[in-house]
Amino acid sequence: MIVPDERPGAGAAGPHAWENSRRGWDGLLVVSVLVPAAFVLTEDAPAPHRLLVAGLLLAIIPAWAWVGRPAVARDAYRWGIAYIALLVALFTPAVLLDPACTFALFGLCPQAFITLHRGNQAIGGVLALALPCALRFAFVDRSVGGAFNLVTIATTTVFFCVVFGGWLDRITTQSRERAELITELEASRAEVARLSAERGALAERERLAGEIHDTLAQGFTSIIMLIQAAEARPDPARHLELAARTARENLAEARALIEALRPAPLDGSPLDEALRRITGRIGDELGVPATFTVTGAARPLRPRTEVVVVRSAQEALANVRKHATPASVAVGIDYGDGEVTLHVRDDGTGFPADRPPGGAGGYGLTAMRQRAAQAGGEVTVDSAPGRGTLVTVRLPAEETA
Fold it and tell me: Fewest beta carbons less than 10 Å away: which of 33, 76, 260, 351?
């Protein structure tokens, strides 16, 4: 259904379909008007007659410039109807006065399709433009020449209505479909961009939550435990010293998180040294032997891999501190061929496989597994009540460039 002023969906396709060939249609219209106007002006007829007919024909050119072309540019249906009505008003008296004007139909018939685009409206416009020629044969000139002109006009009309009209209909339909497809693609791209931004923001929030959990939260927990232990002992100096050191390291963690989001224990030092420092600190906090070993040829890894290794060691040792009550702790890193493996073992209380420390919804182990998976690795936990716990983290070990 056509609304009063515009054709649905045509605005995106109709004007643009004709914009690229606008000069060609302008030229066809001008030539189709100027040729019969020249014939009329050279005829042996009274000057007023010739000037009137030529003036009617030449008035079609400004009508196209001021009404027809804006109708196409704006895809305004009412303007198109007004333009075709104006053409009929100018062309009808010109044809009735001089048969040479029928030549202008070659340029006027396409105007109906250009401004009305397709369908019954365009065909109706062509028939309205051809009707004056039939009226001339019926009421003015019934000679053989008039009949020939009528046949020529009928042939031209059928050609434009069937051949040109069908071609134009396909072009316009394809242009409209392309415009709709482009609109859908742009909408889809905008939706994908929005979803990607939301997913990126969610991933960033999860990553920051993991960073905060692995740095600030663990550090504060350690400080609280050391202060509580100091309060329960007659000589709290050792535990207070450990609490102060942990607080300083926690502050360094917070600064590193803000500045570069790299683990502060690395602080430019080799991975092995950072792990040895973390292991020594847990031994001091718990007052138990804590050993660190390196297997294989140590080598620098990509920063992302080193971050995952350090964070996994911190999380595993934080669980040892909170849940295991161990007599000893052992941390080891194994540099293999194309793989690096972190082991964190304790001989503490252990736990059933279906009941990890902190409950099934505990964030620590979940964050550890997510980190490893993002780096292309995996985490396994082997534990049983009374047998301690072994946490193993395996990661691809691409060397740094």
Answer: 260
pLDDT digits (tens, 9 = 90+) for 196-238: 667 766 766 666 666 666 566 666 777 777 677 766 666 777 7
331 contacts 291 by C-beta, under 8 angstroms: yes
- In CATH terms, the fold of domain 270-401 is Heat Shock Protein 90 (3.30.565)
Mean pLDDT on 157-183: 71
268-321 pLDDT per residue, tens: 568 899 899 889 988 888 889 999 999 998 888 888 888 889 889 988 998 888
